[in-house]
Amino acid sequence: MKPMALDILVFLLFLFSHDFHLKCKAETEAEALLKWKNSLSNPESLSSWSLTNSTNHCHWFGITCNTAGSIVELNLPDCSLDGNLDELDFTYLSNLTKLDLSGNTLTGSIPRTLSALDKLTSLEISNNGLETSDFSEFKAMPTLTHLSLRSNNFPTMELPSFILNCTNLTVLDLSVNEFNGTMPDSLGTNLVNLRCLNLSFNSFSGSIPSSIGNMASLEHLDMSFNLLEGKLPSTMSQLENLTYLDLSNNKLNGAIPAGLGQGGLLYHADFKNNAFWGVLSESLCSGFKLQYLDVSYNKFYGALPSCLRNCTGLKQIVLTDNYFMGDISKAFGLHPKLISLYLKGNQLTGTLSTDWGQCTSLISLIIEDNNISGEIPKEFGNMRSLQELSLASNILTGEIPQELVNLSSLWSLKLNNNMLSGHIPRISLTTPLIVLDLSGNKLSGQIPAEIGNSSSLSSLDLSDNLLAGHISEKLGDLTNLMQLDLSSNELSGSIPSSLARLKALQQLNLSYNNLAGQIPEAFSGMYSLYSIDFSYNKLTGPIPSAIVFYRSYEAYFGNAGLCGDALGLLSCGFSTSDQGSHKKHTTLLIAITVPVAGCSLMLLVAIATVCRRHRTSKVTETENHSLVWDTGLKFKFTDVMEAIDDFNEAYCIGEGSFGVVYRAELPSGQVLAVKRQHFSDESDIQENNVRSFLNEIKFLLEVRHRNIVKLHGACTKKGVMHLVFDYVERGSLGDVLYSVLGGLTFDWAMRVNVIHGVAHAVAYLHNDCLQNIVHRDISINNVLLDNDFEPKVSDFGTAKMLKHDASSWTAVVGSYGYIAPELAYMTKFTDKCDVYSFGVVTLEVMMGMHPGELLLNLPSMSSSSQGNDLLLKDVLDNRLLPPTGQLAEQIVFIVKVALACTQTDPASRPTMLSIAQELSTRKKSYLSEPLGTISFKNLLQVSRSGVLLK
Ligand SMILES: *[C@@H]1O[C@H](CO)[C@@H](O)[C@H](O)[C@H]1NC(C)=O
Ligand SMILES: *[C@@H]1O[C@H](CO)[C@@H](O)[C@H](O)[C@H]1NC(C)=O
Ligand SMILES: *[C@@H]1O[C@H](CO)[C@@H](O)[C@H](O)[C@H]1NC(C)=O
Ligand SMILES: *[C@@H]1O[C@H](CO)[C@@H](O)[C@H](O)[C@H]1NC(C)=O
Ligand SMILES: *[C@@H]1O[C@H](CO)[C@@H](O)[C@H](O)[C@H]1NC(C)=O
């Protein structure tokens, strides 16, 4: 018995201590993983993880084992894993040193058991949708050297404190989250081993702690897109290993510490969009390693650091909007690798060096708005990669070198506002010009007919020169043209009817010339046109019969012989022999004033009632004006009038079919915009109309939203309305989108932000207010952008009170090209009309052009086989590089939303609220296929199937 029992015991011991033990453990590691795999909503994505394969789980996909067969690495990046981590118990994986789950769509919390992994050195869980709201139970992980939580869905919270105790970290990436609060001092005192610190795209506030100077190993520092303020600590100049520094898009101020970058290794320095000032320090380029420098939108002044001239590896320099001075030919040397140089809006002097001709990699050269003099060297024609050249707003003289317009990649050429003379050069057939602006020079001679061969031209501005002769028929061949401005020249003859072939044209200005004859009736078929100006010519006869021609009353001033149904013109039945427009204006004024005076008593009664209900605004009424004013304001309407010297032209900043805008700077420094508009046509100035207008203004005064321009008050006087708003610096979305800089400065991230902002603003108007407000006129001209490219919706709710159309169209307002199709047969303006306009604006921002033609083709595209080969990437604004990563996903989603919004049936369009919510919550996921291969038609079908948004 005994030996037998011993045998069994030995066997059992053996079993427990060795084989069985190992086997059991191995199964436990594998089982822990299988349990998690089966909890995923797509377990099939880990098909190699199966029990039939369990004999050696070390061969499973993504797994690395140690020699003892225990899992040490789990590498599952970009595996489309969809689910959460609740079933992943890390206590069974205690040998793990590396965990990479990045680029999946994992949600939920990170299990606390993770911080018990006491051998973990690398943790990569970036680009998921993880939502952990509380890290307080996470313990410090001293072994961790690499941690990335980039782009997850954590709620807004302060920096998790366990991270500050991971003292062995060399790489810390917390970017694209919503961490807030100040950066603790312990960041620099504890994490002294960091080589890479990325805190970009968060909401960190306060100043950068001076302890950062302790991170002696730091090479890569990115704190861009936060809310940081204050000065940079001088200790930053101790960071001698720094190679990459991005502090852009914060609210930092003060000077850049002398000595920053003195290690001489810096190749990337970005200070864009802050309030920095002072002189750029020599230390930034002392090692001549600099390749990328962006200090745009700050208040730097003085000369550029002299070492810049010797940085032969320079690739991109952006100095836009500072106060740099000095001679441009001394500041730069030979930079054969230079790709882009943006010097716009500084005070540089000197002449253009012929050396620039050797910058054969240069793609964008923007020297706009400086004090550069002399001639344009013909060597500029040697910059064979050049795509974008702006020398606008300098004091250049001489002729435009023929060599310049032979460049085979040039799509944008802006030489406007100089003193250039001579003829317009013949543009080579191979030059793919899209934008040509030669306005504001002293160019003479005829417009060369060959310009009609530049079939890619989208914007042509030759205004304000000394051009003479006839307008060539050949301009009608520019079928992609969206803007044509030939105003303020000495052009004569008639307007060629061939221009009616410009079906994409949105803006046409032929004012201030000597053009005679009729405006061709064929122009009424130019469906994209929304802004026209024929004023101050010698035109005669009836105006064309499309809406845009009816509502643009200023477009005809100074033409004695025009007639038609537009306001201010005599109807064509009448004799057109009375002279000039002066007389017509007098008639108009009388027609407006009389009904207003007649009903002022009724108004008083109505307004008194209104006043009792609301306290935040006040209405005052005198015999000839009514004022609605936000009573909380420190300034009065009369102060505003004083600031613009009672509509002195000197304060006028914009003019169009909407009226005139003035800029009012109050003594306090506050800047306001005053919009002066005429009411709808005379028959509309009924007592009801004015009363409901004042009533609505009172509601509008209550509207407070970060993406809506603040309205402070309004005053109506003799048929004219004055609206007082906050001033928004950058002007309209349209101005920014279609400026040449729009191709660069207004990048994808900003565009996404603009669409989000507009969606939220309109959703707010539709839902959150005391009263639902339908905007009625959403267009790229009614969205303004502030200095930070933050959108501000303007002109909400007032559109319908304004003069837009001939009488038969009074109910239809909005800007042509943005109006929902149902308004052609219905007169009721619903919130779904706004949704349509929002869709058009969104597509326009994504495409960099009005989607008119695309929208026309969509109905046939979604059913037939037409458009099968159209790719999304071909539709996106090709002035920008295609978006990548998460931005690409956001843009695909935004295009889907826009397509859903532009459906013909209003009932199928999503509501603004659902759009705003979806845009906010869907911002963190990944594309299932590369952007480059996404078919536009598939996108259209998905977006219009109704599954996208409800
Ligand atoms: C087992 O895993 C290996 C390695 O991933 C894989 O090649 C093999 O196809 C798997 N076998 C089964 C039956 O899944
Ligand atoms: C970890 O690996 C060691 C061998 O390096 C092994 O002895 C131990 O059992 C493993 N731990 C687990 C939990 O598998
Ligand atoms: C921290 O890093 C150092 C150097 O790499 C290493 O010697 C040390 O063991 C690490 N500490 C921990 C707790 O892992
Ligand atoms: C971090 O370390 C400090 C000092 O060692 C300790 O008091 C604190 O509890 C630690 N915090 C965490 C979250 O580990
Ligand atoms: C951070 O965000 C949270 C949640 O929104 C908020 O409660 C907290 O006050 C914020 N902290 C700071 C410093 O802004």
TrEMBL record:
<dbReference type="GO" id="GO:0005886">
    <property type="term" value="C:plasma membrane"/>
</dbReference>
<dbReference type="InterPro" id="IPR003591">
    <property type="entry name" value="Leu-rich_rpt_typical-subtyp"/>
</dbReference>
<keyword id="KW-0325">Glycoprotein</keyword>
<keyword id="KW-0808">Transferase</keyword>
<protein>
    <recommendedName>
        <fullName>non-specific serine/threonine protein kinase</fullName>
        <ecNumber>2.7.11.1</ecNumber>
    </recommendedName>
</protein>
<keyword id="KW-0597">Phosphoprotein</keyword>
<dbReference type="InterPro" id="IPR051716">
    <property type="entry name" value="Plant_RL_S/T_kinase"/>
</dbReference>
<keyword id="KW-0677">Repeat</keyword>
<dbReference type="InterPro" id="IPR013210">
    <property type="entry name" value="LRR_N_plant-typ"/>
</dbReference>
<dbReference type="InterPro" id="IPR008266">
    <property type="entry name" value="Tyr_kinase_AS"/>
</dbReference>
<dbReference type="GO" id="GO:0005524">
    <property type="term" value="F:ATP binding"/>
</dbReference>
<dbReference type="InterPro" id="IPR001611">
    <property type="entry name" value="Leu-rich_rpt"/>
</dbReference>
<keyword id="KW-0472">Membrane</keyword>
<feature type="domain" description="Protein kinase">
    <location>
        <begin position="647"/>
        <end position="927"/>
    </location>
</feature>
<dbReference type="Pfam" id="PF13855">
    <property type="entry name" value="LRR_8"/>
</dbReference>
<keyword id="KW-0433">Leucine-rich repeat</keyword>
<dbReference type="GO" id="GO:0004674">
    <property type="term" value="F:protein serine/threonine kinase activity"/>
</dbReference>
<dbReference type="Pfam" id="PF00560">
    <property type="entry name" value="LRR_1"/>
</dbReference>
<dbReference type="InterPro" id="IPR017441">
    <property type="entry name" value="Protein_kinase_ATP_BS"/>
</dbReference>
<dbReference type="InterPro" id="IPR011009">
    <property type="entry name" value="Kinase-like_dom_sf"/>
</dbReference>
<dbReference type="InterPro" id="IPR000719">
    <property type="entry name" value="Prot_kinase_dom"/>
</dbReference>
<keyword id="KW-0723">Serine/threonine-protein kinase</keyword>
<dbReference type="InterPro" id="IPR032675">
    <property type="entry name" value="LRR_dom_sf"/>
</dbReference>
<dbReference type="Pfam" id="PF00069">
    <property type="entry name" value="Pkinase"/>
</dbReference>
<keyword id="KW-0067">ATP-binding</keyword>
<keyword id="KW-0812">Transmembrane</keyword>
<feature type="signal peptide">
    <location>
        <begin position="1"/>
        <end position="26"/>
    </location>
</feature>
<keyword id="KW-1003">Cell membrane</keyword>
<keyword id="KW-1133">Transmembrane helix</keyword>
<feature type="transmembrane region" description="Helical">
    <location>
        <begin position="588"/>
        <end position="611"/>
    </location>
</feature>
<keyword id="KW-0547">Nucleotide-binding</keyword>
<keyword id="KW-0732">Signal</keyword>
<dbReference type="Pfam" id="PF08263">
    <property type="entry name" value="LRRNT_2"/>
</dbReference>
<keyword id="KW-0675">Receptor</keyword>
<feature type="binding site">
    <location>
        <position position="675"/>
    </location>
    <ligand>
        <name>ATP</name>
    </ligand>
</feature>
<keyword id="KW-0418">Kinase</keyword>
